[in-house]
Amino acid sequence: xxxxxxxxxxxxxxxxxxxxxxxxxxxxxxxxxxxxxxxxxxxxxxxxxxxxxxxxxxxxxxxxxxxxxxxxxxxxxxxxxxxxxxxxxxxxxxxxxxxxxxxxxxxxxxxxxxxxxxxxxxxxxxxxxxxxxxxxxxxxxxxxxxxxxxxxxxxxxxxxxxxxxxxxxxxxxxxxxxxxxxxxxxxxxxxxxxxxxxxxxxxxxxxxxxxxxxxxxxxxxxxxxxxxxxxxxxxxxxxxxxxxxxxxxxxxxxxxxxxxxxxxxxxxxxxxxxxxxxxxxxxxxxxxxxxxxxxxxxxxxxxxxxxxxxxxxxxxxxxxxxxxxxxxxxxxxxxxxxxxxxxxxxxxxxxxxxxxxxxxxxxxxxxxxxxxxxxxxxxxxxxxxxxxxxxxxxxxxxxxxxxxxxxxxxxxxxxxxxxxxxxxxxxxxxxxxxxxxxxxxxxxxxxxxxxxxxxxxxxxxxxxxxxxxxxxxx
Length: 474
What we know:
- By secondary structure, the chain is of the alpha/beta class.
- 46% of the residues lie in helices and 17% in strands.
- It contains 18 helices and 15 strands.
- The chain has helices spanning 37-43, 60-68, 82-101, 115-138, 155-162, 179-182, 187-197, 208-222, 241-247, 251-264, 288-301, 323-343, 359-368, 384-391, 407-410, 422-433, 437-451, 456-469; strands spanning 8-13, 19-23, 29-33, 51-56, 75-78, 139-148, 167-172, 202-205, 231-234, 274-281, 309-316, 351-354, 371-374, 397-401, 415-417.
- The strands form three sheets. The chain has a seven-stranded parallel β-sheet with strand order 5-4-1-6-7-8-9, sandwiched between helices. It has a six-stranded parallel β-sheet with strand order 12-11-10-13-14-15, with helices on both faces.
- The radius of gyration is 23 Å and the shape is globular.
């Protein structure tokens, strides 16, 4: 039986949607709007465009909202079985695909693709099929559908089979693994992931490097089955300069700046202490522990910086339902405490660590930063690297991993590091701290220009326009 076509000309599909619900003790539901590039981008096409965002119910509040028929205009939330979602999200998306693309496995012990993995893969297929069916039902004839990220790699092919009339795009927000690492996945699973994305008219990535890696994986894994008619695109998501500059000068940010300045304190000679700032979630890919070790190495190798610099490290807990992330978060705290114990004095705390998420405090740290440390093992882009130069008050020096997607755009004006080289990163921190103020200001100006070249609204519209002009894959 053919599906009933909807009337939405533009659809976005992602695991997490633009709104979430919480339920209090009385049973009342409260909606909270989310932010980010997709939210900004989708809003750019205007409220009258008839766009629909299809997403998953992520918690009990979301599921209750779906069951009660509570919702936001322009959003359809799918109440997928909680066990199915958990297996698809934690078992496959975050514990297999994320680890592969970020090259995070400790291969002597992991991965182990056993019967439990196959059970989780079946759930991932069910999860993707639910999205494909919802999109097929809601899309108008010839609609443009933009499918997001590694959670939904199978959707384009599934949706193509249900609705060959649609223009389908897939966007990967992560890096893409090179063929040798991607082939850690079982052969049939690797082929299904690639073929799923190749069901789209257009597959897009944050950098040319990740796009080329995807193409190489297709050639290596699929061979003669690789369909070169799928267009490959690159759209490097930039920072939202207008929003960041306005938001970073509100009263709550000023208050947090004053509190941070008090925590940082002054050097023995009365001058303001220098600041090395990082703002990350405690994702394994962010390399926070090696960043702390590099700071400790700086204090060892360059004792003149003791009591003259503070490492302001915001490490906001992420994915704490996975044991490996809980362990990593604990290790971040342990190393920070160890540095403070070894080097701290009554008037100087070498590491100011905050683990409670606070956006206003993050913006305050951006404004105060003399040096921004962004040293991920691998990152699809890394918006922090782009945001700090945009809001910096006096200019900052960016110490940037060559494995961040942002390196392609910002590397020329950053101090670039190998994320595994702790000694090299320590030397880079010293170099960054000694850049003259005038040069620092010039670098920051160039970094900010590059960082805002493709703001979220334009990033989204560019993809939409490219998809609408792409040839059908047939």
